[in-house]
Amino acid sequence: MKKFINAAIVAAVCFSLAACGSSSSSADTEAAAAEASSSEESSAEASEGETKGRIAYIVGSLGDKSFADSGEAGMEILRSEGWEVRTVETGDTSDADRYEDYILDVLDQGYDYIVGYSTYMEIMADLAPEYPDVKFVGFDQNWDEEQLPENMTSIVYAQNEGSYLVGMLAAAMSETGTVAVDVAMENPVINDFVTGYVDGVLAWNEANGTDVKVIRSACGSYSDPATMKSLVLDQIRNNNADVFYQVAGGSGDGLFEACVETGGVWAIGVDSDQYAAYVASENPEKADVILTSMLKEVGNSLVSVFHSIEEGDESMWGHNITLGLAEGSVGYVDNEFFQANVPEDIRTAMDEAAAKIALGEIDVKSYYDFADETEYTEFVGSAG
User: Domains in the chain and their CATH numbers?
Assistant: First the structure.
């Protein structure tokens, strides 16, 4: 499955991302999550007078200091710009049989736009033809365009590109020669993170004559930090791993906790600036193990879509929007903590690789380029 890039859409998105600023999705995460409504309540009241439109943001649970909160930060920006936005929290996968009901509820209430990530994409695609006057915005799911109804768009992120860079970092910072990537569960998007990370580790090995190994595990949930903590502690004790990349939503908190308790190991966050989120939290000590975070600018990308809608751009409907390093939509956090703990030669190597990826001079492996699951498994296994 190959990625589709619509040049006109990407140009509009790039313009809007520049207008939003590259740090809004991470810097505003805590405030956005704190102000959001619960799944059983309406979101903030619409501002007085006419609104630009009514948006329903469908999300599992806020407070993950990661993916969901990044999207909510974008919703906060849209609220401030005159959109009426309701955030609907559906809970974890134990409530999956109610997901469609949540979406039907907001459709019955007359919302103009339904925004939801990969978990809800199939439901949204099935409902879209029945509601031709409603627009559906999916994100974080790489679909063939034939699957998209005419009133639906999907934002696809090149998470493999950002993961490649933190894979380089993990390999460079490891003292034991074993690093880990720990995920919530396996699916195409998550496997794309893993593919990029492994590719970055292998690239570092090749360039520097090292032989860093990659181990991995899945805890089975985006909201089970206890299980994730147990898995990571096992990897530290039995595999001697010392750098951990988490791609697990709320479960990632368990990974950070395990790193703090063990000492002498590093963590890499995901989606938002998790160092900044934890510094401002009740557990600031967890920030001290987070070297950097692989950024996926979800909030900014959602804002950019609605800026394009305001401008009357109809080209996105029925198509994917693909965003990566070249569009400033993925990357990694380069803050004072990162600079203080990562040697300059490693930071320079990451900068140079990022520039080459953006220019197309480095072609990062993607899960979507493998012929089948066997080919993917063999590639990941080659780093084990």
Answer: 7-158+298-327 (3.40.50.2300), 160-295+330-381 (3.40.50.2300)
